């Protein structure tokens, strides 16, 4: 939980992420620079790449409910 919290804070402060009035996490007005990714350790860069793929998959899956259903989560 603390790692995710710090990551979201960092994303918001760097304006890569934003939070709207409904407390939804959105893309911000900046993108992660390729030079920044190249400066990361191999493991961290790979994690970022996988997170990006997962984000594309979530977006293509449709609604949040659909994603939760596919993973077997219930709310």
* Major beta sheet, strand line-up: 1-2
* Number of structurally distinct domains: 2
| Overall mean confidence score, pLDDT | 86
Radius of gyration: 14 Å
Q: What is the tally of helical segments?
A: 4
**Overall SS class:** mainly alpha
Low-confidence regions: none
Q: In percent, how much strand structure appears in the residues?
A: 5-15%
Helix/strand order, N-terminal first:
HEEHHH
Major β-sheet annotation: 2 strands, antiparallel
Q: How many strands in all?
A: 2
Judging from the principal axes of the Cα atoms, what is the shape? Answer: globular
Terminal Cα span: 19 Å
Could you walk me through the main structural features you see in this protein, from its secondary elements to its overall organization?
By secondary structure, this protein is mainly alpha-helical. It folds into two domains: 31 residues, no CATH class; 35 residues, no CATH class. The chain contains four helices and two strands, in the order αββααα. Strands 1-2 form a two-stranded antiparallel ribbon. The longest helix is centred in the C-terminal third of the chain and has 20 residues. The chain is globular. It starts with a helix and ends with a helix. The mean pLDDT is 86.
